[in-house]
Amino acid sequence: MLIFIDTANLDEIREANAQGLVDGVTTNPSLLAKEKGKPREILANICREVGGPVSAEVVGSKCEEMVEEGRSLAKIAENITVKIPVGVEGMKAVRILSEEGIKTNVTLVFSSPQALLSAKAGATFVSPFIGRLDDAGHVGMDLIREICAIYSNYGFSTKVIVASIRHPLHVVEAAVAGADAATIPYSVLKKLLHHPLTDIGLERFLEDWKRSEGGMTP
């Protein structure tokens, strides 16, 4: 499973990238607004840091606006993926951009029909938001399992990016379900490497070493 980091913060991206953990980056207008600098410059810097897909979201609501923005965003770098919200206008834009060879990521997906139609429109990626579904009393991972089964049944090439991840268990469940990727906040990404038993074991090893001859300074 590919691991994308859900942030527009260059320091977080560089730290995660240094660990070999970043296959791509997803951003949105809210994340970009938190950082200093112009959005296009931030995106260009991110694309220089990461070789994989970097999702950049349109803000228009009409097909023509989305297509124009998408074409403009795609010029920032070769690895830009244009993020488009699911909907009638969004599907029109996805089809046009896909036919022009521009990669797309359909976002704000909350149902299997939305994911099915996104794939038929030619989306490169689809991003189901599982955390928000959990918040609303649904089981978000059920949606991931449904989408993966549908795509497998019909041989769609659209990749599933599990989004709105809240904790490490979401990542594990996404991998078990066979999702293509998970986009993870930096705070959750750090938690994936930690376990209390690992910390206890390391502490004991160091204590034993200090008591041994090998731990004694000459």
Structural features:
11 helices; 218 residues; 51% helix; TIM Barrel; alpha/beta
The CATH superfamily appears as: Aldolase class I
Mean pLDDT metric: 94
Low-confidence stretches: none
Give the C-level CATH assignment: Alpha Beta
Q: Biggest sheet: strands, sense, closure?
A: 8 strands, parallel, barrel
- Principal-axes shape call: globular
CATH fold group: TIM Barrel
Which value, in Å, is the CA radius of gyration?
20 Å
Order of helices and strands: EHEHHEHEHEHEHHEHEHH
Number of domains: 1
Spatial order of the strands forming the largest sheet: 1-2-3-4-5-6-7-8
Give the structural class: alpha/beta
Number of helices: 11
Q: What is the oligomer described by this structure?
A: single chain
Binned, the helix content reads 40-55%
Query: What distance separates the N and C termini?
Result: 48 Å
Note the beta-strand portion.
15-25%
Beta strands, count: 8
CATH architecture: Alpha-Beta Barrel
SSE layout:
Elements: E1 2-6, H1 10-18, E2 24-26, H2 29-33, H3 39-49, E3 54-57, H4 63-74, E4 80-85, H5 88-99, E5 104-109, H6 112-121, E6 125-128, H7 130-135, H8 140-154, E7 159-162, H9 168-177, E8 181-184, H10 186-191, H11 196-211
Parallel strand pairs: 1-2, 1-8, 2-3, 3-4, 4-5, 5-6, 6-7, 7-8
Helix pairs in contact: 1-3, 4-5, 6-8, 8-9
Protein architecture, described:
With 218 residues, this protein is an alpha/beta fold. It has a single domain (2-215), classed as Aldolase class I (TIM Barrel), CATH 3.20.20. It has eleven helices and eight strands. It has helices at residues 10-18, 29-33, 39-49, 63-74, 88-99, 112-121, 130-135, 140-154, 168-177, 186-191, 196-211; strands at 2-6, 24-26, 54-57, 80-85, 104-109, 125-128, 159-162, 181-184. The chain has an eight-stranded parallel beta barrel, surrounded by six helices. Strand 1 (2-6), helix 1 (10-18) and strand 2 form a beta-alpha-beta unit. Helix 4 (63-74) runs parallel beside helix 5. The radius of gyration is 20 Å and the shape is globular. The termini are far apart. The model has no long low-confidence stretch (mean pLDDT 94).
